[in-house]
Write a structure and sequence with these properties.
With 368 residues, the protein is α+β, with helices and mostly antiparallel strands. Helices cover 40% and strands 14% of the residues.
Length: 368
C-alpha cells in the first residue's frame, strides 16, 4: 500500500484544474471514538480514467512524461505532464517550491514513486474540495439506476494484544488521510450503504481497481466472484439475513428435533393442530423469514480489508464480537483469516434460515 505525502504541504502550490487551493489536515493520523456518522451524499460515478491509480495506468501515464534512461522524469517534463492533466503551478517560484516537496531524495528528477505519491495526493485532495465536486460535469456526478443515501463508515484496527474500533466515523477526510498505526497488524474498514463519492475516495486512497469498484456500484453480481489485481484482490458474495432471528432460531430447533424422531414418537409438527399448522405456514412466507439478498464486496490487501455492504446488517456487530476476544483466531492472524471470518459469519446467518424452510417443508408433509 503506497504512503501519502503526509506533512508535505504541496497543495497550496498547485491549482487543481482551476480550483483554488485546498485546505486539509496534513498530519491527521489520529482519530478518536468521538467521530460521528457520515453525512455526505454526493452522487458520482467511478469509471473514469482520471481516478484510476492502478499500476498499469500509472506506469503508462508515467511513460508519457518521457522518463530518461535513469528512470526519472525531468522537472520540466513533470511540469508539462501535470499541466496536461489540468494541474498547474502559478509561476516558476511556486513550481520550484512544489518540486522541493515532491522530490524526496533531491536527485534532480522525479522517480515513479515520487510521481505516484504526488498524483495520489492531488487526486485525493480533489475529492475533498467542494468547489471541485460542484464543477464536475454531470456525467461524472450521477450514477444510473441507483438512489444514493447516507453511508456509515466504521473501522477496527487490531493486533493480538490490542484493538481500536470506531463506528460510525464522521470525519471521513481525517480518517482516509490517516494510516494504520504501527502496533496494528490489520485495519478493517466497513462501509454500510453505497456512497459513490466515498467509494471514489477509497479507490484513490488504496488504489482500488475501477472494475472492482464498478462491481460494487452496480451490485448485480448474482454469483460469488473472485478477482486478483495488482494492488489487491476482490471477493463478492451474496448474503441474506433473518428478519426475526429469534423466530428462525425457534424453527431451526423444531426442524432439528424432527430429524431424529423415532417411528413411534411424534414430531413437533405432528403435535400441532390444523389451524396452528396453517398459521405457521403463512408465517413462513419467504419475505417474512429473510431479507432480500444483498451484495457484500471485499477488497483484500496485505494488511487492510475493505468490506462494502448494500445496507446495514449484523456483520459489524458479529465480527466485532469475535475481534473483541483477544485469544480468538482472527486476532492472531492477518487479512486472509479476517476474510475467512467474514464469510463464516455470512454462512452462520444462512444456516438457521435454511433450517426454517426445512421446517416449512416438514409442516407441509404433515398438513392434511
Amino acid at each position: 500500500m503506497p504512503r501519502l505525502l503526509h506533512g508535505k504541504n504541496i497543495l497550496h502550490m498547485v491549482a487543481i484544474g482551476s480550483i483554488e487551493s485546498i485546505a486539509r489536515d496534513s498530519n491527521s493520523v489520529d482519530w478518536s471514538t468521538s467521530l460521528g456518522p457520515v453525512n455526505e451524499v454526493e452522487d458520482v460515478i467511478l469509471m473514469d480514467p482520471h481516478y484510476d491509480l492502478t499500476s498499469a495506468r500509472m506506469n503508462k501515464l508515467f511513460s508519457l512524461f518521457n522518463p530518461g534512461e535513469d528512470g526519472m522524469v525531468s522537472y520540466e517534463g513533470f511540469r508539462c505532464g501535470l499541466e496536461a492533466m489540468g494541474i498547474a503551478c502559478g509561476d516558476d517560484e511556486q513550481f520550484q517550491a512544489f518540486i522541493c516537496k515532491v522530490d524526496d531524495d533531491k536527485s534532480g528528477g522525479i522517480t515513479y514513486e515520487e510521481f505516484l505519491f504526488a498524483i495520489q495526493e492531488i487526486k485525493l485532495a480533489q475529492l475533498f474540495n467542494e468547489e471541485f465536486l460542484r464543477n464536475m460535469p454531470p456525467e461524472y456526478t450521477h450514477m444510473k439506476r441507483r438512489r444514493v443515501g447516507n453511508a456509515r463508515l466504521g473501522s477496527i484496527e487490531y493486533s493480538p494484544d490490542r484493538i481500536r474500533s470506531v463506528y460510525p466515523i464522521d470525519q471521513v477526510q481525517r480518517f482516509i488521510y490517516s494510516t494504520k498505526p504501527g502496533w496494528a497488524s490489520v485495519r478493517w474498514i466497513n462501509v454500510e450503504g453505497i456512497d459513490p463519492l466515498l467509494m471514489r475516495r477509497l479507490s484513490v486512497r488504496y488504489r482500488l481497481h475501477p472494475l472492482a469498484i464498478e462491481d460494487t456500484l452496480d451490485a448485480d453480481v448474482e454469483r460469488p466472484k473472485y478477482e486478483e489485481y495488482d494492488e489487491h484482490s476482490s471477493l463478492i458474495v451474496q448474503t441474506v439475513h433473518a428478519r426475526d432471528l429469534a423466530m428462525v432460531k425457534d424453527y431451526q430447533s423444531m426442524y432439528r428435533a424432527s430429524l431424529y424422531v423415532q417411528d413411534d414418537d411424534i414430531s413437533p409438527f405432528e403435535s400441532m393442530t390444523k389451524k396452528e399448522l396453517e398459521d405457521r405456514l403463512e408465517q413462513l412466507n419467504i419475505g417474512c423469514v429473510m431479507t432480500a439478498p444483498q451484495q457484500l464486496s471485499l477488497y483484500i490487501m496485505e494488511d487492510v480489508l475493505i468490506s462494502v455492504e448494500e445496507r446495514s446488517s449484523t456483520l459489524w456487530a458479529m465480527l466485532k464480537q469475535r475481534l473483541d476476544t483477544s485469544y480468538s483466531k482472527v486476532r492472531q492472524h492477518g487479512t486472509a483469516f479476517l476474510v475467512y471470518t467474514v464469510v463464516d459469519i455470512c454462512v452462520d446467518e444462512l444456516t438457521p434460515i435454511t433450517h426454517t424452510f426445512g421446517s416449512k417443508g416438514s409442516k407441509c408433509s404433515v398438513s392434511p
